[in-house]
Amino acid sequence: MNRRDVLKSSSLILGYAITGGTAVAVLNGCTVDKTPDWVPMNLSHEQAVLAEHLAETILPASTSGKPGATDAQVVRFIDAVLDSYAPEEKTAFIDNLSLFDSMAMKKYDTGYTQLDQDQRLEVMEDMMGGDPMQRKAFRDFRGNTIVGFCYSEVGAKQVLKFDPVPGHPYQGCIDFEDVGTIWSITR
Amino acid sequence: MNFNSEGKEEISYDAIVVGTGISGGWAAKELCEKGLKTLVLERGRDVKHMDYPTASLEAWDVPRGGRISHEEAKDYKVQLRTGYTVDEFTKHWWVKDTDQPYEEVKPFDWIRGYHVGGRSLMWGRQSYRWANIDFEANAKEGIAIDWPIRYDDIAPWYDYVESYIGVSGRAEGLSQLPDGKFLPPMQFNCVEQHVADSIKSNYSDRIMTIGRTANLTQEHKGRGTCQNRGRCIRGCPFGAYFSSQASTLPAAYSTGNMTLRPNSIVTEVILDDANQKAKGVRIKDTETGASYEFFSKIVFLNASCLGTTSILMQSTSERFPDGMGNDSGQLGHNLMDHHFQCGASGRSDDYKDKYFKGRRPNGIYVPRFRNVDNTSKMKDFVRGYGYQGGGNRSNWQSLVGESMIGSALQEALTTPGDWAFGFHGFGEILPYYDNKVELNRDVLDKWGMPTLTFDCEIKENERAMREDMKTQAAEMCERAGLRDVHPWENRYALGLGIHEMGTARMGHDPKTSVLNKWNQIHAVKNVFVTDGACMTSAACVNPSLTYMALTARAADYAVRALNNNEI
């Protein structure tokens, strides 16, 4: 993750000065937007920072300028959607975030947010192929990242195609290239 | 459409209609248009056309992308059994089960919405005519009792209601699924056309057609054309599907004869001992808790199958100790629904360069092909089923369960997956006396009213039919060359089809039925029941169109009888 990306992520995620231990290191040299416009409801600061970085690894902004998970504020969705979970599932999801950090420690002797992009992908691969709890942590987090991205205005309008009023008539067999991407609205 | 409370509240009307859903809205329209001063009572709150607060909200406009919170879900435990009814976009249309408890000796999924318009706001809109095989089946097979009407009795009323509400569909010339007065049909998509063609070449006993749906494919009676937003359940700003709000209640209102009173739970129909007729109804105002009586010459009960049944059960008197009109002992029995939650699906390797535009609020329909004539007789079961379903092209949702990440995932998000296709069977449930609902005076709801206890289940005939529903669906998928064909079956309990019916059935004989051929209570001639409670059997098609037609027919009869001093 380059400096620009770190800056972008950090300002979008917390919006105010970060004092947490793991976050500070990666933010050295970055100017943080201090606008206190979002406070997580279920995650701690550190968990939210970690979650944002995990989401960006799963769904990164593209070099061609397409937005990624951070641009879409996916972490806000992830934090909020936990309220639709049963309490024990919510706790498990949050606790499982630390498994990503543990994997990073085991492999690289440092926290996840301090890894470079290739190392982050390595950690993700290892989680994907890890023990059942690690696999579940990966699967659940990844799932929420995708849903959060596609349900965001950024994802729905800039990556997918947003068409709230398709009009008459329904057309059941048109050329895909006339649309070029997937419709965003599923309901 | 507010209750007109200027000055003194009128207490006497020509007619009272209880309920504002699909059949209540029709009763209101017909009676008002025929000149009757009509009080229309609704137990829930008022909802006006266009009063659809979530109609244009997107996933990012609501919390959690629309998922209901775990805490709030506790209020909707039954309503959530459908899997699709309660979310942030729709929760205001469904009852809180915590306010409206009921008991289940055996499971019954009672999915309800209490507000003006009732479930006409959230219904599935599929609109099919019954056929003679449906009306004749009970008599021919010696099951339950004979219907007191035949297709010819109701056909003109199907014409009448279809012409008014607007039903899009294609005429197919089938005796088991009569054609109607259709607006232009909606299109199949690529994979649906492929499957339809395959059925045509592989089978001589069945066809696949586009769903017949109460969505407008052209402007109709002042209502707009369907814009394929696929968000009907939230309420349509274009009025492009039939609901009481968009269609019948405005018609009733414009006559000047309708008084609509929301927040009014009917607690009983009052019997006039002197002449064995109803003289009116008693209500409880849910806002004040006060009780009122309103009087009328006729009463139409359209409170939904179970709502109406409950009101009749609560309407006890010396003459009717077991509930109004219950001389036969059939009130609350013969509860039916449509059994579903089984079918088959598969994927197509074709049409990779094709896509679609619009979220068509409609699917396909395979009309019943079992037990429709001598050559289609089944050994294992009587009656039959139809298939709904359809095809679609997979989107990002199919990626959620996979493991791809990074730029590959970013790329995959913008690439559609396979075309998938599925058949979903909807079958007839026979009228079993054992399948019943009883009044429970020990458990009261939020307003102190008795609740219901359900005891019902599907039996051997339905279970055998389900096997065939799965097998035939899978076979049609296979023959169409789909891959990964997957026959499936999920939990089904009565009620989940949201087609509850039969608990105050029509019949020739007062000894075995509650209502006569005009939907009149045999023993209380000025009370009419034209919601799902009146059904003598269930057929396998969606029932709402039939409720509408029966309501219009009964209203026509009621006004004639009233004018002739017969009731």
Describe the structure.
The complex is a heterodimer of chains A (187) and B (567). With 187 residues, chain A is mainly alpha-helical. Chain A has one domain. Chain A has 8 helices and 1 strand; from the N terminus they run ααααααααβ. In chain A, helix 4 packs across helix 7. The two termini of chain A are 34 Å apart. In chain B, a hairpin with a 4-residue loop joins strand 8 and strand 9 (277-285). Helix content of chain B is 21%, strand content 20%. Chain B contains 10 helices and 21 strands. Chain B has helices spanning 22-33, 70-73, 132-141, 151-165, 190-202, 244-254, 305-314, 407-412, 460-479, 544-563; strands at 12-18, 38-41, 103-104, 167-168, 182-183, 209-210, 258-261, 264-272, 277-285, 291-301, 338-339, 342-348, 354-357, 364-365, 385-393, 419-428, 436-444, 450-455, 483-489, 520-521, 524-529. The longest helix of chain B is centred in the last third of the chain and has 20 residues, at 460-479. Chain B has 567 residues and is α/β, with parallel strands linked by helices. In chain B, strands 1, 2, 7, 8, 9, 10, 20 and 21 form an 8-stranded mixed sheet that branches. In chain B, strands 11, 12, 15, 16 and 19 form a 5-stranded antiparallel sheet that branches. The relative contact order of chain B is 0.19. Chains A and B meet through helix 4, helix 6, helix 7, helix 8 and strand 1 of A and helix 2, helix 5, strand 13 and helix 8 of B. Strand 1 of chain A pairs antiparallel with strand 13 (354-357) of chain B.
